[in-house]
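Issue 218. Parser rejects a valid record. Input:
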Amino acid sequence: MFNPPKLRSFVSWINLESPGQSKLIVSGEGEMPSDTERPHLCVNMDPRTPPSTLELDLTIRNSGGAGNAKDEYQRVRFEAPAEQGQYDKVLILWQSSVLLDLDVRETH
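Output the parser choked on:
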């Protein structure tokens, strides 16, 4: 897949309410061309990125099998430990290009 998937309903926040360690959560949906493909987010470790910004690479993983060709949205979620005020921005990247620029909220 060379073109980026269509994205919708993306949000990012630091959950300070949960017991134990607080965490950053990023969630949304990506349109996949078949029912065996799933969106996946992983950290991009670009040293030029400011410390208050987290870059996440969006990739597509095949869960196996031939699958049926149909465009349908699949949920994607990323979680990582984070402290209050640690991030103010999340960038979702596709092949090194920014697809989404999200502000990070905090829930208390």
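Fixed in the parser; the record now loads. The first strand starts at residue 7 and ends at 15.
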